[in-house]
Amino acid sequence: MGLLPNFIAGRPGIAEYDFSGVVAHSKSTEWSEGDPVFGWVPLGYAMKTHEGALAEYVVVPDNCLGRRSPSIKPTEAAGIATTALTAYQALIVAAKLEEGQSIFINGGSTSVGIWAIQFAKAVGARVVVSGSEKNREFLTNLGIDEFVDYTQQPSLSAHLAKESSTPKYNVFFETVGLPDPSLYTLSEKYLAPNGIFISVGPQFHSLREVGQLSRLILNIIWPRVLGGVKRQYL
Question: Could you tell me the pTM of the whole model?
Answer without folding.
Answer: 0.85
